[in-house]
Amino acid sequence: MPAESAPAPAHAVPAGRPTPRRNLVVLDMAGTTVADDGLVEDAFAAAARRVGEDPAPMLDHVRATMGESKISVFRHLLGGDETRARRANAAFEEAYAERVAAGAVAPVPGAADAVRALRDQGRTVVLTTGFARVTQDALLAALGWQELADLTLCPADAGGRGRPYPDMVLTALLRTRAVDDVRGVAVAGDTGYDMLTGVRAGAGLVAGVLTGAHDAERLTASGATHVLGSVAELPALLARLEAP
């Protein structure tokens, strides 16, 4: 599992080189646009039991690594045993999907309106997740969000590496071609791993939100340029930052 470390200092922008408009917005799902309410943790516990493990000793690590690719978390928890990690990850995806199918998911209040507002501002919006594609699609269908964003991405769409690697953010840039400078990307999420992903991708704005796993201190330590109460505040923040 990649170690989380403090982000590098932001690069100085040469005089006369304005920060580009943030025309690409990359948003996390669970905890950021989708209310978690313990669903991820509950699915992890169910997955651990299905592979014969007691989930109780694992949950502190699960909480600390919220936002990281799920298969990476299982590799760590199961001592690098790839076969068991893949079995556990499949069990997690199945358990989470069962809960989605049972109607146990809801949007973060104002999240869908925020995505629409960002698109109305002329920005391209991409929803990302650490889940497998089948689980992400089930989540989007349950919420009626299949057409909400311009693009949705999971780790498999970015070569298999999820957070805290920058791959999904950079894949969003390459697929949408919404900006020609990484500083024109805004990233928002609820975990330290979301913040690291944004920092490592060179995003011009990395916003932490307080509707999910990690607090303001953790988000800031991991590189957040801004901390918001909710993703619902993001359209107004971007408009304010870019006002003449």
TrEMBL record:
Domain of life assignment: Bacteria
Pfam family, one: Hydrolase
Protein name (record): Phosphonatase-like hydrolase
Protein species of origin: Streptomyces coeruleoprunus
